[in-house]
Design goal:
The complex is a heterodimer of chains A (211) and B (308).
Chain A (H helix, E strand, L loop, with lengths): L1 H14 L3 H8 L1 E5 H18 L6 E5 L4 H16 L5 E3 L31 E9 L3 H13 L4 E9 L11 E5 L8 E4 L1 H4 L3 E4 L13
Parallel strand pairs in A: 2-3, 2-4, 4-5, 5-6
Antiparallel strand pairs in A: 1-8, 7-8
Helix pairs in contact in A: 3-4
Chain B lengths: L11 H15 L16 E6 L4 H13 L3 E6 L11 H10 L4 E6 L4 H6 L5 E7 L5 H15 L6 E5 L6 H12 L3 E5 L15 E3 L2 H4 L5 E4 L15 H8 L3 H4 L7 E3 L12 H4 L6 H20 L9
Parallel strand pairs in B: 1-2, 1-3, 3-4, 5-6, 5-8, 6-7, 8-9
Helix pairs in contact in B: 1-5, 1-11, 2-11, 5-6, 5-11
Classes of the chains: A alpha/beta (211), B alpha/beta (308).
Function (chain A): Regulates the transcription of the pyrimidine nucleotide (pyr) operon in response to exogenous pyrimidines. Also displays a weak uracil phosphoribosyltransferase activity which is not physiologically significant.
InterPro entries (chain A): PRTase-like (IPR029057), PRTase_dom (IPR000836), PyrR (IPR023050), PyrR_bifunctional (IPR050137)
Pfam families (chain A): Pribosyltran
């Protein structure tokens, strides 16, 4: 998901070179470190409650930022239940429906726990839920890997504007946004800092890139 | 436009990008479902004027694993046998909406010529004695898997350099990636221009072996030899063939590669070919991953990620 948003903002920046800098000045933090911590702890508890102890769950993060989030959730569940939870990464690059719209993206890494996913409850983890197309691609990718008993979705931020009938089971924060705003998630592991930033309203001329 | 015509066209970053992509794609080979929808709706044509089951099948498998439609067009039994020119064939393929064309042709420069006639991506699958970039990429990929880094790696390429497109592509790509290449061949089997290549040259195999990390044995292309390039096969084998005795001169981790098809007893003995040092079958497996990576990077997005 984030890769997509990044690509979009790159295109955006190309269209108007000066904006990138403006954004970092104008971006407003809607979630900061401790809040993200609390949100993830709550999601971990919700997962345990809904899956009745999380006996056969597998957490799969969608690269880039879904992966450290999946790892963090696995650690939290481990702390609460004192039982290790398999977690991994599910790259969706080859399954995207917008490949032909942008230059070929770098293929990421898929790491599935050694026991596989057959019969388990897979919880997909992503940083931002937006159009829902990343999740659709992830469902296709999962289909090629095995047959989970059920698939659930956890996301740190749900910013709305769905284009597909997809809904998250676990949400860190619902963040109603305008299509002209940008949402950027930064994490310690990838960016050195935990934060969710809401970017400025874009000018009308570059609106189309949001889609 | 977006083509892969020469290994020399790839910058260091682009070459590494292909290798990294291939590495991720190689992981898929272990899965039960080996197919992606990535190139769905795209058409890839294998245009083969020379027989090459290995390369053609490799391209075909690579394209099919990414859900592309594949058309195999071989010169035998096609309109080419009836006298159609390359240009007319190209225009036909263009009219059929080919997004990518992998071409193997006996004439050096055929791939480049084709790229001036069609809109789709052209992949050079071997043109005459000129180049075979995907073979070089898969060789380098195999070296990276076995030896780790390519920087400073000492690679020796042995045999019929004159008729070998594999040698030229490998020299260019290995040089780009920081390896040191030495060509070893009888003087009669070296091209005149070899002095301009970024590599050193030797006529004696035995002296070079102790300083080699990788030895690539080239096929002796008897079908291309209209003259006598060496006195006899026996003499060639004695001076340039890889046998157990020569392998013993290599250091313990060194590997022996061969682009195939291998003539056992000519370039390498069966003993060497079947030893754990030999990477011949690995090279075939890696060939599919590398060609998937190239097809993905050329055709996967709105514009090519390499070879612009």
């Amino acid at each position: 998901m984030c890769a997509q948003k990044r690509a979009e903002s790159d295109a955006h920046t190309n269209a108007d070179g000066s904006r990138n800098q403006d954004r970092s000045h104008d971006a407003r933090a809607v979630l900061e470190g401790p809040e993200i911590h609390r949100a993830l702890t709550r999601i971990a508890h919700e997962i345990l409650e809904r899956t009745k102890g999380g006996g056969d769950i597998t957490l799969l993060g969608i690269p880039t930022r879904g992966v450290p989030l999946a790892k963090r959730l696995a650690e939290r569940i481990h702390r609460v239940e004192e039982r290790s939870v398999p977690w991994g990464a599910l790259d969706i690059t080859m399954y995207r429906d917008d490949l032909h719209l942008a230059p070929a993206r770098a293929v990421g890494r898929t790491e599935i726990p050694s026991d596989g996913i057959d019969g388990s409850i897979v919880v997909l983890v992503d940083d931002v839920l937006f159009s829902g197309r990343s999740v659709r691609a992830a469902l296709d990718a999962l289909n090629d890997l095995g047959r989970p008993r059920a698939v659930q979705l956890a996301t740190l931020v749900d910013r709305g504007h769905r284009q597909l009938p997809i809904r998250a089971d676990y949400v860190g924060k619902n963040l109603p946004t305008s299509l002209r705003e940008t949402v950027t998630v930064t994490l310690e592991e990838t960016d050195g800092e935990d934060a969710v930033l809401l970017g400025p309203t874009r000018s009308r001329s570059s609106q189309g890139e949001d889609q | 436009m977006r083509h892969l015509l020469s290994a020399g066209d790839l910058s260091r970053d682009e070459a590494n990008h292909v290798l990294d992509t291939a590495q991720e794609l190689a992981r898929i080979s272990g899965r039960s479902v080996k197919k992606f929808p990535t190139l769905r709706g795209r058409t890839v044509v294998n245009l083969f004027y020379e027989d090459s089951t290995r390369t053609r099948t490799s391209f075909e498998l690579a394209a099919k694993r990414m859900s592309a439609d594949v058309i195999n067009f071989s010169a035998k039994g096609s309109s080419v046998a009836k006298g159609e020119s390359l240009k007319d064939t190209a225009l036909t393929l263009q009219a059929m909406g080919a997004d990518g064309i992998a071409i193997r042709h006996g004439a050096s420069g055929a791939a480049h010529r084709l790229s001036t006639w069609v809109d789709g991506a052209v992949l050079n699958a071997g043109d005459g004695t000129h180049e075979h970039p995907t073979q070089a990429l898969l060789d380098v990929f195999t070296m990276r898997e076995r030896m780790g880094s390519l920087e400073g790696l000492r690679v020796t390429i042995v045999g019929d350099v004159l008729h070998s497109r594999v040698a030229r592509s490998n020299v260019l790509l290995l040089h780009t990636l920081g390896a040191e290449v030495t060509l070893v061949a009888p003087p009669t089997l070296l091209p005149v221009s070899v002095g301009t290549w970024p590599c050193s040259v030797s006529y004696e195999l035995d002296g070079v072996l102790p300083h080699s990390d990788v030895v690539i044995m080239l096929r002796v292309q008897a079908e291309r030899m209209q003259d006598a390039f060496f006195p006899s096969a026996r003499e060639y084998i004695r001076r340039y063939g890889m046998d157990g005795e020569r392998v013993a001169k290599l250091h313990d981790d060194a590997i022996v590669m061969h682009p195939g098809p291998m003539v056992r007893g000519m370039e390498v003995t069966a003993e060497v070919a079947d030893s754990p040092r030999s990477t011949v079958t690995e090279q075939v497996t890696n060939g599919v991953s590398v060609r998937m990576a190239v097809l993905y990077l050329l055709l996967g997005g709105s514009e090519s990620a390499i070879g612009n």
